[in-house]
Amino acid sequence: MVDTKEALLTNIKEWITIDKEMKLLRGEIKNRREKKKALTALLVETMKTNEIDCFNINDGKLIYSQNKIKAPLSKKHLIACLSKFYENEPTNDARDKLAEYILDSRDVKIKDNIRLKGKKK
Length: 121
Prior knowledge:
Layout: H1 2-49, E1 54-57, E2 60-70, H2 75-88, H3 95-104, E3 108-118
Antiparallel strand pairs: 1-2, 2-3
């Protein structure tokens, strides 16, 4: 019984220690994520304005790319599109045309990225 109680107390103390360490590490990760985000913005702007696709570095390549991201299909957007669609062209057999219109009318965002591509070993 004494061994179990001591083991329980040891486990609790270790758990608390690990929990505190994790909180500190999360804070460090948050700070580094913010710094990386700021540096990414600077690098993206530099690479974009100077039309640089990639940098060769010791560990591989730092590659600039753009990803197009469509806005989510929300109820608000769907209702707005249906209202606009039926205002201009009211038909009963327009399911395919309507679906195509809704999907194609979503906003497209262009996201700039850089990524590190390591050397193959």
